[in-house]
Amino acid sequence: MSRPGTADTREATLVASLQHEDYFGVKEMASLRDLFNARVHLGNSGLRHLSMSPYIFGTRQGCDIIDLEQTLPLLQQALNITGHIVYRGGMVLFLSRQMQCWYLMVVVVVVVVVVVVVVVVLVVVVVAVIAVVVKVILLLLLVVVVAVVVVMIVVMVLVIVVTVVVVAITVVVQYHL
């Protein structure tokens, strides 16, 4: 059994994280309403890449309206993959040609880092709690064993006392007869 903090434990945690569809809880980070309120659905006006066509809900006043129902699961998948990369010590570089998007990149990086830190802290807390529980169980087991030994000694002393009393009564009764 590996101890917390060892390479085996870290590797087991990394493997376990891949077994979960949403290990970092990114599905609770944003909803359709959050994306809508953040005006994510408003795309750019003018030229767009042909590969964007399936994700365009429509156009209004020359501005593309992005289909958020398709965007949300893909955003969650991208955040999950980014979280796994960072969780394993990898680095992610966000690039943009638009200066006004820098704050969005900072927000994504901060969110991913916070999620990874929260998961690591939770893993450490769970391991610490398990260690404390094991110690408490072992201590209780020791107390039970000591109590059983004390009870056995008390019973043996009582048996000896009863035996001495019976022998004494027998001697007294035989002496009077």
From TrEMBL:
This protein's record includes keyword Flavoprotein: no
Source domain of life: Eukaryota
One GO BP annotation of this record: translation
Transmembrane segments: 101-134, 140-173
GO molecular function: structural constituent of ribosome
Pfam name, any one: Ribosomal_S2
UniProt similarity note: Belongs to the universal ribosomal protein uS2 family.
This protein's name: Mitochondrial ribosomal protein S2
Source organism per UniProt: Elysia marginata
